[in-house]
Amino acid sequence: MSELSLDDLDGDSLPQSGDRLQILSPEEYEKLEIVTHWLDDETLLSGGGAEPIRAFRASHEPLRTYESRREMASHISDLVHIRATGSAWCTADDGGCAGRSVVENTRCGDCQNAVIDSRNLQRWAGIYAQQLELRDIEDLGPAAKLRVDRDIARCEQVLQDLGALEAVQTTAGIFESST
User: Fold this and answer.
1) Can you give the pTM of this predicted structure?
2) DSSP 28-51
3) pLDDT digits (tens, 9 = 90+) for 140-174
4) Which of 2, 81, 134, 171 is the most buried (most CB within 10 A)?
5) pLDDT at res. 50
6) Contact present, 158 and 116 (Cβ < 8 Å)
7) What share of the chain is helix, strand, coil (3-state, %, to 5)?
């Protein structure tokens, strides 16, 4: 079965005779693209929801039921609830998302329902830079200092998982070489 978005409908991409055409809504197409990206062995992931995806990718079980990885991603994307929080992809389908506000979106860093990929990298680099600025404020109280330290640790873990911590630290001017 051919899967096309509305944007793909030009004369060159129309299905051949005998193909079934499934036109995806923009939301379905984006969800399929997200899941396909997650299933790529080269995609670095972070967040509590990343480990089951990495384990699935590492299992190397043959695709017995699906003709392709894309078809498998299509099937999975139909089963998985995905919502963008701005700093992660939230898979909580029961309203149990605690990081859905800009007030504390670092909670997504260790939430079991969060999957963070390269599409979220700039947001995490920005949050990290802001937390480093906050850490340097001298009149922060003890509770604020604890929260800033916790948020810095969450950001560093996400950036490390995405392979970007050293680059972000170098750009921020805080990376010191051990050589």
Assistant:
1) 0.74
2) HHHHHHHHHHHHSTT---BSTTHH
3) 999 999 999 999 999 999 999 999 999 999 887 66
4) 134
5) 93
6) yes
7) 50, 10, 40
